[in-house]
Amino acid sequence: MSQKALDLRGSIQIVRRRKLLVGIIVALGILGGVAYAVAKPAIFSSTALIALTPPPASVQPTTTTSGTDPYTATQEVVAGSSQVLLDALPDVRTAMSLGELRLDVQVASPATDIISVSAKGKSAADAEATANAVADSYIRYVSSSHSAVGRVQAQLLESARVATRPNPIERMIVFALLGGLTGALIGIVVALALGRNDRRLRERDEIANSIGIPVLASVPVAHASAARGWVRLFEDYNPSAVHAWQLRTALQQLGMDSPGFDRPAYDRNGSSSYDDGRTSMYEGGRFSLTVLSLSSDPGALALGPQLAVFAASQGIPTSLVIGPQQDAAATATLRTACTAPPSEASIRHGLLRVTAHDGGSIDMHPDTALVIVVAVVDGRAPKLPDLIRTNATVIGVSAGAATAEQLARAAVAAAADGREIPGILVADPEPTDQTTGRIPHLGGPARRRPPNRLRGIVTEIKR
What we know:
With 463 residues, the protein is of the alpha/beta class.
């Protein structure tokens, strides 16, 4: 029972993840139902009634236990027989075969000693003519001497005069609903088939367990597709309290001493500590961090910039470095945004410096307290370019964007480059994910390993 519940929950999650695909198939089903209703318009139906004279009481059959009248039931069979339908064919309004006529005619008994003959037609006149032709043929047949059931007194009680058909709008709605329901079933089946073959990692625990490294933070990210989107992120990024706490905790987990959070970025006169030449508000030493992501995962690229903007907004003098990449196209728009001058009111103007680094030595402003390096590698064959050595390296990945094999390859490439990976940052976590990603216990500040290559001083942004 427990296993079934887990399978049901997993199936619901798979369908929810692919709700766009299911929605498209449902929409196609609705359109298909509407198209069918338009292409196959409703046909007309008309009914003729025949009254039977009951047989004498001495020969009248006994009513069966089911309540049916055997005499009337027999006449129903006769009215729908091949002989009656063949005799009616010459009088049918539209020429058709015996098989087609049999499909268009339905014989029933609305009451004892009454037979109804209903016929369908593309037009009201066709339906009325067909119903009357079959009714007349039956009356002639049972009144003749060659009737298989003997002579029966029958007369036309009501000829087929008024043909009706379903309301076209109501019929279209019904077919649209049926098409939507069929599309939903097909969409669910397709989503489950695709989902069961999808090896991409979605939950925090899955991501952490894939390479045995805990998830330090999981936050929604901006999906900037142009340089102006990155500039907007530099200027306006403001995480919610929950995500701000996760980013703050992640920096502490990585070993950043005395982060100096919650201190004002500007003094009472509106000047930043950078611009007025006073001592930096950050009291710890310089800390550096590399955020490594995959070129096939554009969402994770925003993790490094968002972490840098957040740290600067909390009073930490921060430098964001976009170094040389294995896939230069992955960071092209971000590098372009680095050359845009900051606005006077932006936190970037005082405490955040961004630069595009093309290799070799890089110098930092003496007040820089946090350096975040953005690195992007190919998930199929990752290889780290000549990047700045930092105190720590984290892997950034979006939920549902990478497989365990891709993350393992990236981790192996980082380890081969002599880098330690203490944690993972997850972008755009699944809303239904209740796992923690094996969050480690928050202890005291860890002792940092000094970076290998941070040399010299840079006083302005490289353009």
